[in-house]
Write a structure and sequence with these properties.
alpha/beta, Alpha-Beta Plaits, TIM Barrel, 2 domains, 9-stranded parallel sheet, 11 helices, about 35% helix
Length: about 350
């Protein structure tokens, strides 16, 4: 069962609901989004009088949700949601380009990549300060030094930061720098981390686990939502299959399926799915054509020198075509490219 609070609901109204619910022996989780607050109930809700709850101040609706991912379900929230990151919207009315270096290496490299991304139409900057890698000997990121570089580049360019957090112990530190916290494919079912980012007070990008079903992906988002945060963006980044011609297999059908099942925005990572520079633009077109709310793309000024994922990073010669894709395709789909925060 979930209780949907109206926009006019006060903090006191929410506290009263929680008190009544807990007095009946049912646990309550308060999740706040941009436009409304939801109280999710866990336990024996048969002890609660739904009619009485509907009559309490600030309550818009009381409903039973049959899906296991109650807070992120379209059953609970029929209209699709928009998440704002530093003022930049990600949602059904826009197509948002998130771009930047896969890994932060130096101040110069990060700033140059950010300028390249911005020239192609990016309104959010991606960059990894912490890099969970398959090999323990591979570059693992600069840590807080990388976060400081990202913060300096944000100051220089005005682009809000999207960066990954890989350990629940680092959430507070990363959140002090980032505008959006990213949970990567390897941590998509790290439930302690999901709960920690849910409580951090920042929008969250949740990449699909490389072996996760769509339901498992949405259940992971539910972990974040249950800790009070409905500002979650789902990212399809390719799944592991028998195919070896590409780095991962982009499940393009996951975009409309997830959008039908959940109210959360859904974006696509064409860089990590294809794993090759020549596939990034075709997969970007496919993602936008199927209705993705945005894409997240790797760019690098010198990919041959990159410490992480150089073969998939776009370079200057690709960015003019990317910019044209971002200009031309969204209007055909009844959307607009997301404007920079300063222009909103």
């Amino acid at each position: 069962m979930v209780i949907v609070m109206g926009q006019e609901a006060t903090g006191g109204d929410v506290a009263s609901i929680v008190a009544v619910v807990r007095a009946a022996g049912v646990e309550a989780f308060v999740s706040r989004g941009v436009t409304r607050t939801i109280v999710g109930l866990v336990g024996d809700v048969t002890q609660l009088d739904a009619a009485n709850l509907r009559g309490m101040p600030g309550v818009r609706e009381v409903m039973r949700v049959s899906t296991p991912y109650k807070l992120v379900s379209r059953e609970n929230h029929p209209e699709r949601s928009t998440v704002r990151v530093g003022g930049v919207p990600i949602g059904p009315g826009t197509v948002t380009l998130i771009a930047g270096p896969c890994a932060v290496e130096t101040p110069e490299q990060t700033l140059q990549a950010a300028r390249m991304a911005q020239a192609a139409g990016a309104t959010l900057l991606r960059g990894g300060a912490y890099k969970p890698r398959t090999s323990p000997y591979a570059f693992q990121g600069l840590g807080e030094k990388g976060l400081r570089i990202l913060a300096d580049v944000r100051e220089e360019t005005g682009l809000p930061i999207v960066t990954e957090v890989v350990d629940a112990r680092d959430v507070e530190l990363v959140a002090s720098y980032a505008d959006m916290l990213q949970v990567g494919t390897r941590n998509a079912q790290n439930f302690a981390l999901l709960q920690a980012v849910g409580a951090a007070g920042r929008p969250v990008m949740l990449k699909r686990g490389m072996n996760a079903t769509i339901e498992e992906w949405l259940m992971a988002a539910e972990y974040v939502a249950q800790r009070g945060n409905l500002d979650v963006v789902l990212c399809e980044r390719g799944i592991r299959t028998f195919e070896t011609a590409t780095r991962n297999t982009l499940d393009i059908s996951a975009v409309p399926v997830a959008q039908r099942l959940s109210h959360l925005p859904v974006i696509v990572d064409p860089s990590h799915s294809g794993g090759r520079r020549d596939l990034v633009l075709p997969l970007t077109r496919a993602a936008l054509a199927v209705g993705a709310d945005g894409v997240i793309i790797d760019v690098h000024p010198h990919p041959e020198q990159a410490l992480c994922d150089g073969p998939q990073a776009l370079v200057d010669t690709d960015l003019g075509e990317l910019a044209q894709v971002m200009r031309d395709l969204p209007p055909l789909l009844g959307k607009s490219a997301a404007a920079p925060a300063a222009l909103i």
